[in-house]
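**User:**
My hope is that you can spare some time for a protein that puzzles me. This is the protein in question:
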Amino acid sequence: MITEPSTTAEILREVARRADVSVSTVTRVLNGKTRGAYPKVAKRNRHIQQIADELNYRPSYRGRTFQLGKTLHVALLFENENPMLGTTYGQMIEGAVRRLHADGYHLTPWGLTPADLDRTDLFLDQRFDGVLVHHRITDTMREAIKRAGLPAVALNTDDDALPCVCPDDRRGARVLTQHLIDLGHRSLLFLKNRFDRHMSTRERLRGFRDAAEQAGLSGDRARVCEPIESWQNRDAPAVTRLIDTIFQATRPATAVICYRGHDALGLHRALLHHGVRAPEDVSLAVCSDELSIDLHTPAITAVRVPFMEIGAEAAGILLRLIAGDASPAGARVMLPEKLIVRESTTPPKAQR
């Protein structure tokens, strides 16, 4: 009767015996410490892995982290009251997860409660090797990260105390506005975002104004309107006032730029309700390509924000910091956005 090996040591010795290699070689291969750069080594590694599979063996995760002196876990920090983890932010998190997994790391989302935000001892238990910061955090939380000696990178936000990866929202909005100007529009309206604290709110508005000023558009030729809280009621006073602002001003707008896709869809629905068509009566564009607006009728011209690339780049920087590379506090990586021209923007009616 043949007895199958049961302990880890017995299994490793059996794998080594069948593969005709040393136990130390088996250990290095199964722990991923030898990549097999040469065909002969790669073939040997596959053979070792196959034998381990036949014996239902995997290296102990706990043992591996103990040996490495790392947890192989990274935290994604965000405030519970404003997680902002919708579809587009899901892409950003997916990019981070893919990059971390490539190096054997795992991402743990951590919603910070008000009580957490007041603690400077939150990370002293060393459950993470580093943190990704989503949205802005408090000075107390920065102190907690610093006190624990954790590498940290901010993504999609401007944090002067941390290295960060951001979309170039200012340039994206400028290119989008210039697209409308190039079509012949000389009366524009920008519909703001309601989250005033976020970096993109400020940068997209700056980009709009940059292009407008360069084209000599000011005053009622480049108006900025406050956001609409809800688009559910198309006859709500706020919605009606916005429609009036667009069309009943001294100089009616021929093109509207919305901060986000939700507002673009809501505005288009309200315009139709009031007998206004896009792009026949007014061109419509948005600063973020989201919510399947490419499937809308008409498909809406937008700026594509590289959310997945932001997550991947931020995770890559964090992994390098964990490995010991230095990065100056406040260093910023800006990733370019891309204009996607669709059916909703055409030359103004007077020029057709």
Remarks:
- The domain at 169-305+339-351 is CATH 3.40.50.2300 (Rossmann fold).
